[in-house]
Amino acid sequence: MKIGCIQMNVGFGKVDENFERAEQLIREAASKGAELVVLPEMWNTGYALEKLGELADKDGARSKAFLQGLSSELGIHIVGGSVATEKDEKFYNTMYVYNNEGKLVSEYSKVHLFRLMNEDKFLESGNAMNRFALGEVEAGGVICYDIRFPEWLRAHALAGANVLFVSAQWPTPRIDHWKTLLQARAIENQCFVIAVNRISRKVENFNGQSMIIEPWGEVIWTGSETEELAIVDVDFSKVQEVRSRIPVYDDRRPTLYAGVVEK
């Protein structure tokens, strides 16, 4: 499957400009043969958390109409990164996933809120897993800080995910953590990790370096430090090949793990 990774420059609080740029890049990806495209985190607003009252997408209406329309028109799957949404007077960091028929197949709000960027002061956390299928591809999706919680991504893999999509706004000072964590999540779960970060030229400090990692831990693509659209061919059959080489899932001892008391 040809994957379009949209490592876009997200304007701080510039909602209309961000929608316009996202559409341009999605259409370009489709024209270049992408069958599935992935967007970064909070691409509609950037981290303008103090302005969510005026910027957040009410009930996700604009974002859902936008993603549904493009997925249906272009006949592509869209892992819609995440957008700032407002529901019942509360704000969320929400991922919408549409299949190539324009059907909403998953809606997920970020479970682990990042206190270093004050997410916990402005956002509500989600409480549900993000497992979905796009055609024959069994997948899971998480958002940024979620990748620091290996048990959360393992839960998706145990539920049948063969690929984990990660949408992020991962800052430059911790970019080495990003690379190591993503590779570790791919190796330990023996699955593909397709991770899309954003870049920023002004207010915020993000430098891309999105990644696609195979189940054996091999990095098959790394993004640059500028805005970029990459089309990468991914062979999802490699998941079963790797899992047959080292039978990690067969050798697990979950009853023992369940007996460990969390501190």
Layout of SSEs?
Elements (H helix, E strand, L loop, with lengths): L1 E6 L7 H17 L4 E3 L13 H4 L1 E2 L2 H14 L2 E3 L3 E5 L2 E9 L5 E6 L9 H4 L8 E4 L2 E7 L6 H9 L4 E5 L7 H15 L2 E5 L14 E3 L5 E4 L5 E6 L4 H8 L2 H4 L2 H5 L5
Parallel strand pairs: 1-2, 2-4, 3-5, 9-10, 10-11
Antiparallel strand pairs: 1-14, 4-6, 5-6, 6-7, 8-9, 11-12, 12-13
Q: How would you classify the helix and strand content by structural class? A: alpha/beta
Oligomer: single chain
Low-pLDDT parts are none
Count the strands? 14
Shape: globular
Question: Mind describing the biggest β-sheet?
Answer: 8 strands, mixed
First and last CA, distance: 42 Å
Radius of gyration: 17 Å
Spell out the helices and strands N to C: EHEHEHEEEEHEEHEHEEEEHHH
Portion of residues in beta strands equals 25-35%
Helix content: 25-40%
Q: Report the average pLDDT across residues.
A: 95
Q: Tell me the number of helical segments per DSSP (H or I, 4 or more residues long).
A: 9
Keywords: Hydrolase
Family: Belongs to the carbon-nitrogen hydrolase superfamily. NIT1/NIT2 family.
Protein name: Carbon-nitrogen family hydrolase
InterPro entries: C-N_Hydrolase (IPR003010), C-N_Hydrolase_sf (IPR036526), UPF0012_CS (IPR001110)
